[in-house]
Design a protein that fits this description.
six-stranded mixed β-sheet; Ribonucleotide Reductase Protein R1, domain 1; globular; binds magnesium ion; five-stranded mixed β-barrel; binds zinc ion; OB fold (Dihydrolipoamide Acetyltransferase, E2P); 3 domains; 10 helices; alpha/beta
Protein backbone atom coordinates (compact mmCIF):
# COMPACT_ATOMS: atom_id res chain seq x y z
CA UNK A 1 0.00 0.00 0.00
CA UNK A 2 1.33 3.46 -0.88
CA UNK A 3 0.74 6.64 1.10
CA UNK A 4 -1.36 7.91 -1.82
CA UNK A 5 -3.62 4.86 -1.47
CA UNK A 6 -4.12 5.93 2.13
CA UNK A 7 -5.10 9.47 1.14
CA UNK A 8 -1.73 11.24 1.48
CA UNK A 9 -1.34 14.26 -0.77
CA UNK A 10 0.67 17.42 -1.33
CA UNK A 11 -1.47 19.12 1.32
CA UNK A 12 0.04 16.87 3.99
CA UNK A 13 3.51 16.52 2.44
CA UNK A 14 4.11 20.28 2.48
CA UNK A 15 3.49 20.33 6.24
CA UNK A 16 6.47 18.06 6.93
CA UNK A 17 9.40 20.19 8.10
CA UNK A 18 12.98 19.33 6.97
CA UNK A 19 13.88 18.14 10.48
CA UNK A 20 10.90 15.80 10.44
CA UNK A 21 12.09 13.85 7.40
CA UNK A 22 12.86 10.81 9.58
CA UNK A 23 9.35 10.63 10.98
CA UNK A 24 6.84 8.19 9.50
CA UNK A 25 3.48 9.46 8.21
CA UNK A 26 0.57 7.30 9.40
CA UNK A 27 -3.21 7.56 9.37
CA UNK A 28 -5.46 7.07 12.40
CA UNK A 29 -7.63 4.01 11.71
CA UNK A 30 -9.19 3.59 15.12
CA UNK A 31 -8.79 5.12 18.54
CA UNK A 32 -8.95 3.15 21.76
CA UNK A 33 -8.66 4.67 25.20
CA UNK A 34 -4.87 4.63 25.41
CA UNK A 35 -3.93 3.50 21.98
CA UNK A 36 -4.17 4.61 18.39
CA UNK A 37 -4.45 2.03 15.63
CA UNK A 38 -2.52 3.51 12.73
CA UNK A 39 -1.77 2.49 9.17
CA UNK A 40 1.41 3.55 7.40
CA UNK A 41 2.84 2.68 3.97
CA UNK A 42 4.56 -0.25 5.69
CA UNK A 43 1.47 -1.56 7.42
CA UNK A 44 -0.25 -1.36 10.80
CA UNK A 45 1.26 0.45 13.75
CA UNK A 46 0.22 0.90 17.33
CA UNK A 47 0.66 4.47 18.55
CA UNK A 48 0.70 6.18 21.91
CA UNK A 49 0.12 9.86 22.49
CA UNK A 50 2.70 11.64 24.69
CA UNK A 51 1.26 13.57 27.65
CA UNK A 52 2.41 16.89 26.21
CA UNK A 53 -0.36 16.64 23.59
CA UNK A 54 -3.10 16.62 26.22
CA UNK A 55 -1.38 19.29 28.27
CA UNK A 56 -1.12 21.75 25.39
CA UNK A 57 -4.50 20.95 23.81
CA UNK A 58 -6.96 23.83 24.16
CA UNK A 59 -9.75 21.70 22.76
CA UNK A 60 -10.35 18.01 22.18
CA UNK A 61 -10.16 18.93 18.52
CA UNK A 62 -6.39 19.42 18.95
CA UNK A 63 -5.95 15.68 19.57
CA UNK A 64 -5.69 13.11 16.78
CA UNK A 65 -8.89 11.37 15.78
CA UNK A 66 -10.07 8.86 13.17
CA UNK A 67 -9.01 9.93 9.68
CA UNK A 68 -6.17 12.13 10.88
CA UNK A 69 -2.64 12.09 9.56
CA UNK A 70 0.11 12.00 12.17
CA UNK A 71 3.91 11.83 12.10
CA UNK A 72 5.28 9.06 14.31
CA UNK A 73 8.62 7.69 15.50
CA UNK A 74 9.51 4.16 16.63
CA UNK A 75 9.73 3.78 20.42
CA UNK A 76 13.38 2.94 21.22
CA UNK A 77 13.53 -0.54 22.66
CA UNK A 78 9.80 -0.98 22.07
CA UNK A 79 8.12 -3.86 20.32
CA UNK A 80 7.91 -4.04 16.54
CA UNK A 81 5.25 -1.61 15.32
CA UNK A 82 5.07 0.38 18.57
CA UNK A 83 5.33 4.08 17.83
CA UNK A 84 4.93 7.43 19.50
CA UNK A 85 2.85 10.14 17.88
CA UNK A 86 5.03 13.21 17.37
CA UNK A 87 2.76 15.59 15.53
CA UNK A 88 -0.79 15.92 14.25
CA UNK A 89 -0.92 17.37 10.73
CA UNK A 90 -3.48 20.00 9.78
CA UNK A 91 -6.75 18.59 8.49
CA UNK A 92 -8.01 19.28 4.98
CA UNK A 93 -11.59 18.70 6.12
CA UNK A 94 -13.51 17.67 9.22
CA UNK A 95 -17.06 16.96 10.26
CA UNK A 96 -17.67 18.41 13.73
CA UNK A 97 -20.48 18.71 16.18
CA UNK A 98 -20.71 20.16 19.65
CA UNK A 99 -19.54 17.66 22.24
CA UNK A 100 -22.58 15.83 23.67
CA UNK A 101 -23.86 17.01 27.05
CA UNK A 102 -23.01 20.30 28.74
CA UNK A 103 -19.43 20.56 27.58
CA UNK A 104 -18.81 23.46 25.21
CA UNK A 105 -16.21 21.98 22.92
CA UNK A 106 -15.87 20.82 19.37
CA UNK A 107 -15.91 17.10 18.70
CA UNK A 108 -14.44 16.00 15.41
CA UNK A 109 -16.47 13.09 14.19
CA UNK A 110 -14.32 12.35 11.15
CA UNK A 111 -11.20 14.03 9.76
CA UNK A 112 -9.80 14.34 6.22
CA UNK A 113 -12.88 13.03 4.50
CA UNK A 114 -13.88 13.78 0.92
CA UNK A 115 -17.50 12.69 1.09
CA UNK A 116 -19.98 12.63 3.97
CA UNK A 117 -22.79 10.17 3.44
CA UNK A 118 -25.70 11.33 5.55
CA UNK A 119 -27.65 8.12 6.03
CA UNK A 120 -31.32 8.07 6.95
CA UNK A 121 -33.77 5.22 6.91
CA UNK A 122 -37.09 5.31 5.12
CA UNK A 123 -38.96 3.77 8.07
CA UNK A 124 -40.60 5.50 11.07
CA UNK A 125 -37.27 7.04 11.98
CA UNK A 126 -37.25 9.24 8.84
CA UNK A 127 -36.90 12.84 9.95
CA UNK A 128 -36.47 15.83 7.64
CA UNK A 129 -35.38 18.17 10.45
CA UNK A 130 -32.56 15.89 11.38
CA UNK A 131 -31.37 15.59 7.79
CA UNK A 132 -31.42 19.36 7.48
CA UNK A 133 -29.26 19.61 10.59
CA UNK A 134 -26.74 17.15 9.21
CA UNK A 135 -26.61 19.17 6.01
CA UNK A 136 -25.99 22.31 7.99
CA UNK A 137 -23.13 20.70 9.87
CA UNK A 138 -21.69 19.46 6.57
CA UNK A 139 -21.56 23.00 5.19
CA UNK A 140 -18.40 23.88 7.07
CA UNK A 141 -16.80 20.45 6.86
CA UNK A 142 -14.97 20.81 3.57
CA UNK A 143 -16.42 17.47 2.46
CA UNK A 144 -19.15 16.85 -0.10
CA UNK A 145 -22.45 15.86 1.52
CA UNK A 146 -24.52 13.12 -0.10
CA UNK A 147 -27.84 11.91 1.30
CA UNK A 148 -28.45 8.16 1.34
CA UNK A 149 -31.98 6.99 2.09
CA UNK A 150 -31.76 3.37 3.17
CA UNK A 151 -34.38 0.65 3.74
CA UNK A 152 -36.26 1.41 0.52
CA UNK A 153 -37.54 -2.19 0.73
CA UNK A 154 -39.88 -1.31 3.61
CA UNK A 155 -40.95 2.14 2.45
CA UNK A 156 -44.49 2.57 1.21
CA UNK A 157 -44.62 6.29 0.63
CA UNK A 158 -41.31 7.02 -1.05
CA UNK A 159 -42.66 9.76 -3.26
CA UNK A 160 -44.11 11.70 -0.31
CA UNK A 161 -40.91 11.43 1.64
CA UNK A 162 -38.79 12.57 -1.27
CA UNK A 163 -41.07 15.53 -1.69
CA UNK A 164 -40.78 16.47 1.99
CA UNK A 165 -37.03 16.23 1.65
CA UNK A 166 -37.03 18.39 -1.47
CA UNK A 167 -37.52 21.49 0.67
CA UNK A 168 -34.20 21.04 2.43
CA UNK A 169 -31.75 19.32 0.09
CA UNK A 170 -31.04 22.29 -2.19
CA UNK A 171 -28.88 20.49 -4.73
CA UNK A 172 -27.40 17.84 -2.44
CA UNK A 173 -27.43 14.47 -4.23
CA UNK A 174 -30.03 12.05 -2.82
CA UNK A 175 -29.81 8.30 -3.39
CA UNK A 176 -32.41 5.70 -2.45
CA UNK A 177 -30.95 2.30 -1.56
CA UNK A 178 -31.69 -0.92 0.25
CA UNK A 179 -28.72 -2.45 2.02
CA UNK A 180 -30.84 -5.46 2.86
CA UNK A 181 -31.60 -6.24 -0.80
CA UNK A 182 -28.21 -4.91 -1.92
CA UNK A 183 -30.09 -2.58 -4.25
CA UNK A 184 -28.60 0.74 -5.38
CA UNK A 185 -25.70 0.40 -2.96
CA UNK A 186 -23.08 0.53 -5.71
CA UNK A 187 -23.84 4.22 -6.28
CA UNK A 188 -21.83 4.90 -3.11
CA UNK A 189 -18.76 3.42 -4.77
CA UNK A 190 -19.00 6.04 -7.52
CA UNK A 191 -18.09 8.71 -4.97
CA UNK A 192 -15.12 6.87 -3.49
CA UNK A 193 -12.06 6.31 -5.67
CA UNK A 194 -8.57 5.13 -4.68
CA UNK A 195 -7.05 7.43 -2.06
CA UNK A 196 -10.33 9.10 -1.15
CA UNK A 197 -12.15 8.78 2.13
CA UNK A 198 -15.82 8.83 3.01
CA UNK A 199 -17.69 8.61 6.29
CA UNK A 200 -21.19 7.33 6.97
CA UNK A 201 -23.08 9.42 9.50
CA UNK A 202 -26.62 9.18 10.80
CA UNK A 203 -28.78 8.02 13.68
CA UNK A 204 -28.47 4.61 15.26
CA UNK A 205 -30.24 1.89 13.33
CA UNK A 206 -30.37 3.53 9.90
CA UNK A 207 -28.09 0.83 8.51
CA UNK A 208 -24.65 2.45 8.30
CA UNK A 209 -22.73 -0.69 9.28
CA UNK A 210 -24.96 -2.88 7.09
CA UNK A 211 -24.23 -0.60 4.11
CA UNK A 212 -20.49 -0.69 4.75
CA UNK A 213 -20.53 -4.47 5.00
CA UNK A 214 -22.20 -4.52 1.58
CA UNK A 215 -19.48 -2.29 0.17
CA UNK A 216 -16.77 -4.47 1.71
CA UNK A 217 -18.41 -7.66 0.51
CA UNK A 218 -18.30 -9.34 3.94
CA UNK A 219 -19.68 -8.81 7.45
CA UNK A 220 -16.88 -6.81 8.93
CA UNK A 221 -18.93 -4.58 11.26
CA UNK A 222 -21.54 -5.72 13.76
CA UNK A 223 -25.13 -4.71 13.04
CA UNK A 224 -28.14 -4.72 15.36
CA UNK A 225 -31.91 -4.94 15.14
CA UNK A 226 -33.93 -1.75 15.61
CA UNK A 227 -36.72 -1.41 18.20
CA UNK A 228 -40.05 -2.48 16.80
CA UNK A 229 -41.99 0.35 18.46
CA UNK A 230 -40.23 3.30 16.86
CA UNK A 231 -37.59 1.87 14.48
CA UNK A 232 -34.80 3.41 16.55
CA UNK A 233 -31.45 1.62 16.75
CA UNK A 234 -29.72 0.32 19.85
CA UNK A 235 -26.31 1.91 19.33
CA UNK A 236 -24.62 -1.21 18.05
CA UNK A 237 -21.50 0.55 16.77
CA UNK A 238 -19.68 2.15 19.69
CA UNK A 239 -16.50 3.57 18.18
CA UNK A 240 -15.43 5.09 14.91
CA UNK A 241 -13.33 2.95 12.64
CA UNK A 242 -11.90 3.14 9.17
CA UNK A 243 -11.80 0.31 6.62
CA UNK A 244 -10.22 -0.12 3.20
CA UNK A 245 -12.66 -0.73 0.34
CA UNK A 246 -11.89 -3.59 -2.09
CA UNK A 247 -11.54 -1.27 -5.11
CA UNK A 248 -9.56 1.38 -3.23
CA UNK A 249 -10.70 4.25 -1.08
CA UNK A 250 -11.57 4.24 2.59
CA UNK A 251 -14.75 4.35 4.59
CA UNK A 252 -15.32 5.39 8.21
CA UNK A 253 -18.11 3.72 10.19
CA UNK A 254 -19.44 5.88 13.01
CA UNK A 255 -21.76 5.25 15.97
CA UNK A 256 -25.25 6.71 15.63
CA UNK A 257 -25.32 10.15 17.24
CA UNK A 258 -27.96 10.85 19.86
CA UNK A 259 -27.30 14.55 19.87
CA UNK A 260 -26.40 16.61 16.90
CA UNK A 261 -25.86 20.06 18.25
CA UNK A 262 -24.34 22.66 16.07
CA UNK A 263 -20.69 23.40 16.24
CA UNK A 264 -20.79 26.07 13.74
CA UNK A 265 -21.34 29.71 13.12
CA UNK A 266 -23.81 31.76 11.21
CA UNK A 267 -21.99 31.37 7.90
CA UNK A 268 -23.22 27.79 7.67
CA UNK A 269 -26.74 28.96 8.42
CA UNK A 270 -26.53 31.46 5.61
CA UNK A 271 -25.23 28.84 3.20
CA UNK A 272 -28.01 26.42 4.01
CA UNK A 273 -30.80 28.95 4.14
CA UNK A 274 -29.73 31.26 1.35
CA UNK A 275 -33.29 31.28 0.01
CA UNK A 276 -34.43 33.00 3.22
CA UNK A 277 -31.42 35.30 3.22
CA UNK A 278 -32.22 36.32 -0.35
CA UNK A 279 -35.84 37.02 0.51
CA UNK A 280 -34.77 39.02 3.57
CA UNK A 281 -32.86 41.44 1.36
CA UNK A 282 -36.23 42.74 0.25
CA UNK A 283 -37.58 43.33 3.77
CA UNK A 284 -38.23 47.01 4.44
CA UNK A 285 -36.00 47.06 7.53
CA UNK A 286 -32.46 45.75 7.21
CA UNK A 287 -32.63 44.30 10.73
CA UNK A 288 -36.08 42.78 10.15
CA UNK A 289 -36.72 39.81 12.47
CA UNK A 290 -39.52 38.58 10.18
CA UNK A 291 -42.02 38.68 13.05
CA UNK A 292 -44.63 41.40 12.59
CA UNK A 293 -42.64 44.17 10.96
CA UNK A 294 -44.37 45.95 8.07
CA UNK A 295 -42.96 45.23 4.61
CA UNK A 296 -41.47 41.89 5.59
CA UNK A 297 -40.65 40.01 2.38
CA UNK A 298 -40.09 36.75 4.25
CA UNK A 299 -43.56 36.71 5.82
CA UNK A 300 -44.99 37.68 2.46
CA UNK A 301 -43.27 34.71 0.81
CA UNK A 302 -44.76 32.41 3.43
CA UNK A 303 -48.21 33.87 2.81
CA UNK A 304 -47.90 33.40 -0.95
CA UNK A 305 -46.65 29.83 -0.52
CA UNK A 306 -43.25 30.61 -2.02
CA UNK A 307 -41.54 29.78 1.28
CA UNK A 308 -42.43 26.79 3.43
CA UNK A 309 -43.52 28.02 6.89
CA UNK A 310 -41.89 25.07 8.63
CA UNK A 311 -38.62 25.81 6.93
CA UNK A 312 -38.74 29.36 8.28
CA UNK A 313 -39.50 28.01 11.76
CA UNK A 314 -36.52 25.66 11.58
CA UNK A 315 -34.29 28.48 10.42
CA UNK A 316 -35.35 30.58 13.39
CA UNK A 317 -34.78 27.71 15.79
CA UNK A 318 -31.28 27.09 14.45
CA UNK A 319 -30.54 30.80 14.59
CA UNK A 320 -31.42 30.82 18.30
CA UNK A 321 -29.24 27.78 18.82
CA UNK A 322 -26.26 29.42 17.15
CA UNK A 323 -26.76 32.58 19.23
CA UNK A 324 -26.88 30.46 22.37
CA UNK A 325 -23.76 28.54 21.38
CA UNK A 326 -21.86 31.75 20.69
CA UNK A 327 -22.74 33.10 24.14
CA UNK A 328 -21.74 29.81 25.76
CA UNK A 329 -18.43 29.90 23.94
CA UNK A 330 -17.86 33.37 25.34
CA UNK A 331 -18.42 32.02 28.85
CA UNK A 332 -16.08 29.09 28.23
CA UNK A 333 -13.38 31.43 26.90
CA UNK A 334 -13.80 33.73 29.92
CA UNK A 335 -13.51 30.81 32.37
CA UNK A 336 -10.40 29.63 30.60
CA UNK A 337 -8.87 33.11 30.71
CA UNK A 338 -9.57 33.33 34.45
CA UNK A 339 -8.00 29.93 35.07
CA UNK A 340 -4.98 30.91 33.04
CA UNK A 341 -4.69 34.17 34.99
CA UNK A 342 -4.87 32.34 38.32
CA UNK A 343 -2.27 29.82 37.23
CA UNK A 344 -0.02 32.59 35.99
CA UNK A 345 -0.43 34.67 39.17
CA UNK A 346 0.49 31.64 41.23
CA UNK A 347 3.58 31.07 39.12
CA UNK A 348 4.70 34.64 39.68
CA UNK A 349 4.01 34.42 43.42
CA UNK A 350 6.06 31.26 43.69
CA UNK A 351 9.02 32.52 41.74
CA UNK A 352 12.15 32.19 43.89
CA UNK A 353 13.23 35.81 43.40
CA UNK A 354 9.82 37.02 44.65
CA UNK A 355 10.01 35.08 47.90
CA UNK A 356 11.16 36.94 50.93
N1 LIG B 1 -35.42 -3.61 5.97
C1 LIG B 1 -34.17 -3.20 5.97
N2 LIG B 1 -33.43 -3.32 7.08
C2 LIG B 1 -32.16 -2.89 7.05
C3 LIG B 1 -31.57 -2.34 5.88
N3 LIG B 1 -30.30 -1.98 6.17
C4 LIG B 1 -30.09 -2.30 7.46
N4 LIG B 1 -31.20 -2.86 7.99
C5 LIG B 1 -31.37 -3.35 9.36
O1 LIG B 1 -31.38 -2.26 10.25
C6 LIG B 1 -30.81 -2.64 11.51
C7 LIG B 1 -29.74 -1.65 11.93
O2 LIG B 1 -28.66 -1.73 11.03
P1 LIG B 1 -27.17 -1.28 11.44
O3 LIG B 1 -26.32 -1.43 10.22
O4 LIG B 1 -26.72 -1.95 12.68
O5 LIG B 1 -27.40 0.27 11.75
P2 LIG B 1 -26.32 1.38 12.13
O6 LIG B 1 -26.70 2.61 11.41
O7 LIG B 1 -24.95 0.87 11.92
O8 LIG B 1 -26.61 1.59 13.70
P3 LIG B 1 -25.61 2.00 14.90
O9 LIG B 1 -24.37 1.20 14.76
O10 LIG B 1 -26.38 1.67 16.13
O11 LIG B 1 -25.38 3.47 14.76
C8 LIG B 1 -30.29 -4.06 11.31
O12 LIG B 1 -31.23 -4.95 11.84
C9 LIG B 1 -30.19 -4.20 9.79
O13 LIG B 1 -30.35 -5.53 9.38
C10 LIG B 1 -32.40 -2.25 4.69
O14 LIG B 1 -32.00 -1.79 3.63
N5 LIG B 1 -33.68 -2.69 4.82
MG1 LIG C 1 -23.36 0.59 13.14
ZN1 LIG D 1 -38.58 40.38 7.28
Amino acid sequence: MTLTDLGWSHFFQQQVEPDEADLIPARVWRQDINQYHLVSADGELSGTLPGRFRQSALSKADLPTVGDWVLVSPIPGGEQGQVQIERLLDRKSRFSRKEAGDVVDEQIVAANIDTVFIVSSLDDDFNVNRLERYLLLSQDSGALPVIVLNKADICEDLEERLEALGHVTRGTPVHVVSAKDNAGVDIIKDYVGPGSTCALLGSSGVGKSTLINRLLGYDRFATGEVRETDSKGRHTTTFREMAMLPDGGMVIDTPGMRELQLWSNTTALEGTFDDIETLAMNCRFSDCQHQSEPGCAVKQAVASGELNAERLARFEKLQREVAHLVSQEDVAARTQRKQEFRRFSKLIRNRPDKRD
